[in-house]
Predict the 3D structure of the following.
Amino acid sequence: MNLLASMRIALRALRVNKLRSSLTMLGIIIGVGAVITMIAVGAGAQARVEEQIRSLGSNLIIILSGSVSSSGARLGYGSQRTITEDDAYAIHREVPAVQAAAPALRGSGQVSGGSNNWSTAFWGVSPEYFEARQWNIVAGRGFGQSEMQGSAKVAVIGETVAKALYGDSDPVGQIIRINKVPLTVIGLLERKGQTFGGRDQDDAVLMPITTARNRILGAAQSKRRTVNNISVKLRDDINVAEAEADIRALLRQRHRLQAGQTDDFFLRNLSEVLSAREESSRIMALLLAAVASVSLLVGGIGIMNIMLVSVTERTREIGLRMAVGARARDILTQFLVEAITLALIGGLLGVLLGVIGSYAIGEFAGWRVALRAESIALAVGFAGIIGVFFGFYPARKASRLLPIEALRYE
Amino acid sequence: MAEPLIVTRDLTKNYHLEGFPVHALRGISAEIGAGEFVAIMGPSGSGKSTFMNLLGCLDSPSSGEYLLAGERVSALSGNALAAIRNRRIGFVFQNFNLLPRTSALENVELPLLYCGIPPAERHRRAVARLEAVGLGDRMHHHPSQLSGGQQQRVAIARALVNDPVLILADEPTGALDTRTSCEIMALLQQLNRNGMTVVLVTHEREIAGFANRNISFRDGRVVEDLRVERPSDAAAMVEEAPEEAEA
């Protein structure tokens, strides 16, 4: 008897008890649906983290002002600015692993432009900043070394600021005012989206660090030329730990720290933070998938239960089939195919449920979901394996019946 | 008869029922020739059904030998026995044993499913057998839509579909009224006249009267083996019997 014929017999048998078959399938449907949805949610979260890492730039180290002791009381990071613009240039010059090091000086204020105004953060940065943060200009241009030296009244703005001030019209060439200082917008930054902390990176105005210090923030800043942070981009294929050690040594030397003293700066490797997040989101996804697999397992037990009942109910049918020439193998195949059919139909309906569920979660909960063909194939394949695994025992039980006893069974 | 179709030598069957040994058959040696119509009789517990099950390869003997068409069936494995049941023996049961919710045609095709015959050929043969038993117009009916007599005719068509050498009928009229019983017996007599060997188990004398030979069992032994000189003609009795509604 070929497989197609077995399949037809199985479908007929399953149709006889429609309600029972559907309820049995429900376990598999929910299981497969849950596995697919959970994997999609997990993969979505992972894709989001990966995107954030890309948006921050890989091989990026941020140097922040560290804690300093002031009369015995240790203050927090950045409580006093200890790093300077010159630290940034020294790092670029003296640490070979560094591709770009850009100081950034932060300020905030009211920005007005066109007929609107907007409260935002502005950053005075060196031209290397765009390279260090892998931040491209999508319209207009960035500023260069000559504009740095001349404290040119130019600015590059983020998408959020551009939208707030100019709506959909082109901001390049417009004049914005920050604290009454007019700056010409020469470029529009590429959209970066939110940081993992939820801060809108596009809500920013960048200008030459000299412009920020000399024209907007005022002379108080200019003495030691301290900065809020330094973005350091390392070259590719560099040992990050070694590069960090070199930078640390250089800064300690420049800040004249003695051997016993703690650092007055702090290095933060963002990709490390994000890798940890990626790892935890991956573990989360695995955990969810494992929980979902349990429901698949329960579905499989349901199949086994119903197949055992079915074998008992159809003992006479088995006897008759044996009497007209069915071998043990034929009976085994018949019941196994029936269990697999049950599992596979449940699996396919489960895929449908999983796909709908994933989109529903993406739509209504606003989570990113990523449906993957291999996870669907995996879930259906797993459902099939469950059919074989849990169908085998009842099928073997059926095939081992003695013809005469099966025929006489009441 | 040069070579009997069925030869049994000292066939015994013992089994345990609730811990007590039961000697269902205590050494049966019998020969049944090709083309015979044999009725096996006896009260319940006499061993006639056990003997029938052994002949049908549904059960295996505790000891002794069984040869079907010269083949030592008692020595065969499960799969080989399944093949014998499939190709050489046709069964007719008291309660018809048709698959429910399955058309007459598919019921008749069932044995062919287990010997790898292609669908078109299966269909052709099943249609031919159903027409031969007079059910050409009921092929797509389910058993529940057929009368008892019609169901038994479907079962006979199924028994014949793989051209067996032997028809085994276990109380084939047990669930039927007199007139329908006569019709079924007429069908079996007609098959026998065309050369088919028929072995029938019954406890009714009248039914046994349609056979050419009556073997009586009691307590696991053959107690009587008679030739019936002039068997009743079932077809004629159908003509005489009063018209009854079919069950």
Remarks:
- The radius of gyration of chain B is 18 Å.
- Helices of chain B lie at 48-55, 78-87, 104-113, 119-132, 148-160, 178-193, 205-208, 234-240.
- The interface with chain A takes residues 53, 56, 58-59, 78-79, 82-83, 85-87, 91, 93, 97, 99, 101-102, 110-111, 113-116, 158, 162 of chain B (CB under 8 Å).
